[in-house]
Amino acid sequence: MNSSSPTNFAGQHILVVEPLKSFGVDLNDALKHLGNPDVTIVTRADDAEQAAATHKPDVIFCNIHLSDNGDGFDLAQHLHATHEAPIVFFSTNPDEHSIRYALRHSPCTPVEPPFDSGRLSSAMEDALYKFRKGITTHEHLRELRITDPLTGLGTSHKMNLALYHEWNRCTLEEAPLAFLLLHLENFENFERVGNSETTLEALTKLAQAIQTHCARRRDVVTKGATARFMILLPSTDEPGARHVAGQIVEAIRDLRLVPPETSGSPAITAAIGIAVVIPSGDKTIASMLEWAELQLDTAERRGGNRFHGGSMQPGNTITTAAPKSFLDRWKSWWTNKSTDRRDLH
Predict the structure, then answer these.
(1) How far, in Å, CA of 40 to CA of 248, rounded?
(2) Cα–Cα distances in angstroms (integers) from residue 270 to residues 185, 209, 262, in the given order
(3) Contact (Cβ atoms closer than 8 angstroms) between residue 183 and residue 226
(4) Contact of 285 with 164, CB cutoff 8 Å
(5) Residues near 313 by Cβ (< 8 Å), separated by ≥ 6?
(6) 159 pLDDT more than 50
(7) What's the rounded Cα separation, in Å, for the pair 13 and 156?
(8) How far apart are CA 102 and CA 115, in angstroms?
(9) What confidence category does residue 341 fall into, taking pLDDT thresholds of 50, 70 and 90?
(10) β-strands 13-17, 38-42 pairing
């Protein structure tokens, strides 16, 4: 949110817990510029509980450091449990330890000086959005970022993290890394019917079929675009990757998924592109992704439950530009990112 155009929070009630009266007045003045919401300011933890019960605030701003009864975290935990309202922590003198602790207790980013109307507006908007979505902690927020809500599989964000981590790990271990790119053919027939319940049921069955054959602890399966899935198989050579691809293709074929509202529609089939590489200085994540994309193109041209590809041999040079796709963002990002780092954060 740009500080020059704060959101109007007229009609909202805000509770501020701030031990210094003078600073509470300054906060009140800044908040009044947000559509003149109702603001209640208290200086003591005991008063905060009473004020919350009386005014039923929509948002609670709580100073991390309180003087009368410990810190703001215990108070915030109690208020959140007894009064359904999001908590936004702030500090006039923030330190790294306090900020980290605040992130563990609330999904809302702590507010630091200067406390102008724009910054407070952004904090309130963020807090209310996350509260309405049921996001209760930063761990929950992270889980939502890496988990696809429809299938329960990972998202492209999770694959980004796994790619970098496993690339470094396999580099250190001199172990092969396999990446499979899967496209569901004829899935558009489900979308064309327009029955979201049927489409979701089919998508769930497909996700389960794929995940069943990628069950090792380090295996990662994520959902990309509507009809695409990505599979990362650490410490997996070409025969192993092709075996997994074959199992997935067979499992999807056995499902025989056809929209029930149609007659004569072809069943969903799978095309899989396989890229296997032993990470080293002359290879990059970007080239592995592009190799998988090209192998997928070949499998799609051959049609109907096919997989194609394997190891990127020394001298394999990508000379044909891969089609524009959701991988383009990845490839450009990884091309600009050093892949020879050894830290496994």
Answers:
(1) 59
(2) 6, 12, 20
(3) no
(4) yes
(5) none
(6) yes
(7) 38
(8) 17
(9) very low
(10) parallel
Apex CA 20: angle with CA 53 and CA 17, to 5°? Answer: 25
In whole angstroms, give the CA distance from residue 131 to residue 108. 9
Cα 14 to chain centroid distance, Å, stands at 30
Structure tokens at 80: 């959140």
Domain annotation for the chain: domains and CATH numbers = 13-142 (3.40.50.2300), 147-335 (3.30.70.270)
Whole-structure pTM value: 0.56
Strands across the sheet with 87-90, in order? Answer: 38-42, 13-17, 59-63, 87-90
Phi and psi, residue 88, nearest 5°: -115, 120
For residues 113 and 45, give the distance between their C-alpha atoms in angstroms, rounded to a whole number: 22
- Which two tokens mark 172? 């250190």
User: What average pLDDT does this structure show over 47-60?
Assistant: 88
Smallest CA-to-CA distance from 311 within 295, 300, 327 is with 295
Alpha helix (H) residue ranges in 113-217: 117-132, 138-146, 156-173, 188-193, 196-212
Rounded CA-CA distance 48/27 in Å is 16
Place of tokens 């799978």: 270
Cα separation, 221 vs 272, whole angstroms: 13
DSSP 85-108: --EEEE-SS--HHHHHHHHHH-SS
Q: How far apart are CA 118 and CA 115, in angstroms?
A: 8
